[in-house]
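User: Fold both of these, please.

Assistant: Here is the first one.
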Amino acid sequence: MTESNGSDALDRRNQTERVEQGEGTPDWEKRFRAPRVSLPEWAEDAPDRSLFVSNATGTYELYAWDRSTGEQRQVTNRPNGTTDGVLSPDGEWIWWFDDKDGDEFGVWRRQRFPGGEDELAAPGLDPSYPAGLALGRDDRTAVVGRSTDEDGTTIHLVRTGEEPVEIYRHRESAGVGDLSHDGTLIAIEHTEHGDAMHSALRVLRPDGTTVTELDDTEGGTRELGLEVLGFAPVAGDTRLLIGHQRRGRWEPLVWDVATDERTDLALDLPGDVSAVWYPDGSGLLIAHSFEARSQLFRYDLSVRELVEVPTPPGTVSGATARPDGSVEYLWSSAAEPPSVRSTAGGVVLDPPGMKSPGSVPVEDVWVEGPGGRIHALVQKPRGTTGPLPTVFDLHGGPTWHDSDSFAAGPAAWVDHGYAVVRVNYRGSTGYGRAWTDALKHRVGLIELEDIAAVRDWAITSGLADPGRLILTGGSWGGYLTLLGLGTQPDAWALGIAVVPVADYVTAYHDEMEALKAMDRTLLGGTPEEVPERFEASSPLTYVDRVKAPVYISAGVNDPRCPIRQIENYVKRLEARGAVHEVYRYDAGHGSLVVDERIKQVRLELEFAERHLGM
């Protein structure tokens, strides 16, 4: 009996180990299931206390990590997952955003770092879309930004035990940038001038009165824009780190808001540059993004010297300087899964369980296009030669870019025999302000011109089979997919649109206010003011020209690409008997549940297999 029980226990243990290592699970699925962690945020005044996001339970949730003991615990546990969380400077509280069903409309709650019951973090504030949050060092002060369709943006000073005090209100979009170390200065970004893609800055006192302003959207520098990167983390320091675009790309500048002294770093780096403070305020940790890859540097403010912080070739998705001078960063490449590393050596946070398989590296391709050279990233199965069935996977944003970083979605296509091409079309970041800002008025059509140029290269180079080209993408990429299927009907064999804009006019009227503002900026007005532009840029305009089978997936609670405008598009497909499938899921603009993500990718792969005969 004893031997039998021991054997059973060993069998169960071996079975558990096989499950944890993913035995019998295909590689593409392992990449989604393998536990991942975000870059840990640490409390400025209690650096041993950290907060990170992980999918260890199968849903992305927040975790607290006490570095002094090594203890980790799950903070949130919601059916649709949680990723928006902030650690207070003293490390005592974890704030997290509680929205309903993934619709991004909700309230802030908080929980003690060691654990305990959640409590409403800002009593007296009604649910809203979040518009920034900054926490004070006194354990009782917060600055909370809110956005609603009725009020626009409001910003409140919240003190424990007191009623929230409104210190800012405007119809246009705005947001909380940061709170100074001593809590006497509040930096906000705003778009009161009406250009939602380019913010101006204002520094307020806690009573809402203005200290100073900085605006690059007026006069000769119109539409350059600014962003808050953070106050110096030093007592009594009034320096504010900001980002600007005065030389045609994002760069950091140090602005002393008390004296108006401005220190322009004038870094000799070709791409977009961001920065965060070192904990003692003596230097900046510089993040440089250029042509789909990134580098880190330390900039010493006293001697104005730039020194590279060595990282492997690939992409750094986030970085932070620790009190001991080391740098922790989240790194990956297309071939290697993400890991949190330290310049002090080794991996900082390595979740247990299944390890993600790698994938194939990307190849860089440059193609001449109507607006300049276009950068594309290409992956194809090892040992294959063309022409191959090829997936054009379009990124969202539009102000975003694909990079040499690990992505489970493209890797799944490669595992199934497809080449994958990702295009950093006009509108993408990392190639200068002129490239990013090129979209206005001919929205969607400009991006598709660049995608068409890369598609032509893929065919003439022998990479792509012209009869088996798939156009796909999520969010803005899903919008471009539907628009491309209608405006380039003979170019694509298949379309897969994930949470797309399908009917631009209806989407405008149903979407959250901040996105309405962006659409007005991109198209030059509302649907009533510039109806011809909305019509020209709407996939619904061209739906009757679509020839390829169409697959659409949509979250029924999505505030960014709302479900009603997708249903309008689907009804038009149905009316003419067009080949299409629709998958609706109970969440918002994407899912934080691993099983749901895998299900969606599986459905996309199966749709392609049915219609392309793969």
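And the second sequence with its predicted structure:
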Amino acid sequence: MSSLKNLVLKHVYRTGDDDLFHDFYKPVLSKAVKYDRAVGYFSSSILAANLRGLGSIIQSNGTMRLIIGHPLEREEFEAIRYAVTSPLELAQQYTATLLQWIHSDKDVSSKSLELLAILIASGRLEIKFAFRRAGMYHEKVGIIYDSYGDAVVFQGSANETPSGMFEHLNAESISVYKSWEPELFEAYGKVYQEGFEKLWNSEQKNTFVVDIGSDFYSEVSKYVESSPKLQTFSLLDIEGIEEQIAKYEVEQTNTNTKNTPNVPDFLNGHKFKVKDHQKVALKKWRANGYKGILKLATGSGKTITSIYGAVKVYETLKNKNRGLCLIIAVPYIELASQWGENLLDFGISSHKCYNAKNSWLPSVQESIATFNAGIKDFICLVVVNRTLASNEFQQVVSSINPKSMMFVGDECHNHGSNKISRLLPLSDFRMGLSATPFRSDDDEIDSMFPNVSRENLLSYYGDIVAEYGLGDAIHDEILTPYDYHLVPVYLNDAEQEAFEELSEKISSIITKSGGQLSKDDKEKLTIFCGQRSRLLGSASDKLKKLSELSSMIPESMRNLTLFYAGEGKPFKQDEDAHDCKVIDQVSDVLYKNGWKTSQFTSAINSAERKNLMEAFKDKAINALVAMKVLDEGIDVPACQTAVILSSTRNPRQYVQRRGRVLRRFPNKRKAIIYDFIVLPNSDFEQPASKKLISAEMERVNDFLLLADNKLQVEKQLEQIGLYYDI
């Protein structure tokens, strides 16, 4: 049998340029004695279609190990169940039929289930099911070994299905790493090779793996049998699955780990190394007495920085025979779930303190009791801010010694109010995380009152001890560079008149108050500012410009786009005005121009959000249309384009939205931002118009400062009578 080295293999294969099956799969499998494969989707029909290619493995008594992320079809599961219960009978059929099929030119596509059963029964094929608490296991990796000890590792987008191998309904590509090219193989191939072994042995912290014959998978298969739409599969769709996952998670935790924080060797398929700006931030935090705010750009690794810091605090305390209780507070459940996933990479299984209190309170009480008794030296609680403020949570954590507690406030700017700042635990170790810790002094309402939020944040967390801006992150290639495009929107006559009237009312209240606003003044000011904000957010010209823009963007560039729409209903200037929400109007315009979109709002439940995010990443839909729910912390690294139809005057919002689209992702070389700026309809010299232009230009100047196409946008500004403030 010849070696894999004898094949002429490319480093990258792509549909359109290559035939993935005939140019790559078939020749490499003809040399194989062992084949490991991890995929999202698998179909037994691929075994029959590729039987000649698998002949080398079968005849050499080799093995195939397969990890799948989507359940098998009912008939496939039944075939495997039969193979497991009748292995000897099927194994005898192996020599009589399988070899005959291999050497025959006869079409055996109708024998796929029988072939699957024979391979299982004869020990040639093992299949395991991988699942995650949130989302679907969707990795696509293959490792092929020959009899000479050489290996080929490939990683890419194709599934182990006929459509992935032959039909190419989607554009597929694979990267190839050869063991006889040590530099590339050590850097990339070995990572996937070692990762597969860890996954097969269920040692990957954020993914569980079970045998197809397990009781857990039997429960999954029952759902598969009754599900008419397997493509929309989600574990969370299965009744009672949360309890089963939790039970399995506990069993695995008891078996494989003692919940000991540690620094991983690999993270997201790459060798883990703390970045320089993260080291500097933690050094300054430690020098400030383990207190302070890390002002790190969105996407620059705030979460990983803080978890790594917590692991180091744990190790320091352990050397002094002390334990650590780590509490992480976040604004949203979706963000809490992401933290849970990230913590698992560092060996930390967390208590999820959200949803109904009965789902977390008893286990937290028990863990804290064992921690206080010295039986455990580490526990971790991930809590949403609403639960943090509850009596139950406050009471249960009050018994923990502050000297053994570390508190991390993610998006810590949410902790500035008098109500919540008083409830933050008086821990010895405090870390605030935010790209924008403080509100802008130019916020038209907040600037009328003392900046209590800023004072509370500094009082609790301490000073900003480390800063790492977007410019730093783009320069260091931690974030993606971007092009910035302006979409000028002009108020019509009626909107201009309403805008000036509201601006006059706001100005009059502020002037008459002399800086001492009564309760009535505050209420009126809030109403008028809200109305003006809605007027600007729903300017009629926006829909016209959106229609023009969305129709111009070719289908090939529509995927992975976020649209940020205004909140609520449009400001009504007359009784005949449209009464539907702004986000619905935006969705309708996109639909008419052939876009496939879904709304991502606080109104949909967590299971629906997970499914939508998977559909977005898999390009089953082009875009997500959102309002505010994607502003803080929720990871959408695949996103390539952001269309900002509406933005508040608070820089925090647009800074976070920009950071969201700049996150690194494979094959993402540049992000694109379209910004709809609202301008007066004619006279730029009116006081209200000047303030509007000034507010919009503050955002434009900020975005433009780091844009790759800065000169192009400066020319556009000059053409519309605006000028870039250097």
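The longest strand covers residues 482-490.
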